[in-house]
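Form P-L/3: holo structure prediction, ligand D-glutamic acid.
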Amino acid sequence: MKVGVFDSGIGGLTVVKSLLEHQLFEEIIYFGDTARVPYGSKDKNTIIRYAIEAVEFFKNFKLDLIIVACNTVSAYALSEMQESASCPVIGVVEAGVLATSNAIKDKEANILIIGTNATINSKAYENGLSAMAFTQLTAKATPLFVPLVEETLFTGKILEATLEHYFKELKTPNAVILGCTHFPLITDAIASYFGESTKLIHSGDAIVELLEHRFDFYKRYAKPKLKFFASENPEALRKIAQEWLDV
Ligand code: DGL
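OUTPUT (holo model):
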């Protein structure tokens, strides 16, 4: 199995980390559109155009599957990517909805969805969760977390002030959907803000759950081949990948 993983930038490496932990693929080809990140502040047509260009890039490799690690792209451009790709394309929104419904049995549980402005405006998670009969949904755009993660501010005063800024008026949720590639890197801070009773839904783990639910994996690959591509400064992406993924 050869998989392509697409993100607007480096954040999708959090999904690659989950794939590596579960050893599902023989080869992982990562493409981050680092020249044009962030997507979360762009409009629908632009996001779709960039996403289709990513599919064209992936046509250079004979892929069995494309995983859209970017929540913003999954929210706006998944069906367009599926139409133009010659292999299946799956995205983190569908995966996150499925993982939430597996983890949370009470349909009246309080679920908080956080993501970029574009993801939240799309209502993609809310629509998916409503279709699963969840009724208590709160969606909040938390775009400041993206540059904080890019600056590797995973702890400290600025992050704490930002958590307070976004969450101080919210009731403690039963679950939080980390609806942005970058947010798994601040899981500890979010978890300690809300406390142990709040379950966090991570896109990478959710994708693994969706893959195992939908596809048969006969083999595990101890050391998948990894290739990293970026539309700008691929060396910087490879360096971050080495650090984050320990490869
Ligand atoms: N990858 C994006 C997402 O998951 C976050 C960064 C961006 O805005 O492009 O929504």
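COMMENT: Strands lie at 2-7, 27-32, 65-68, 89-91, 110-115, 136-141, 175-179, 199-201, 225-230.
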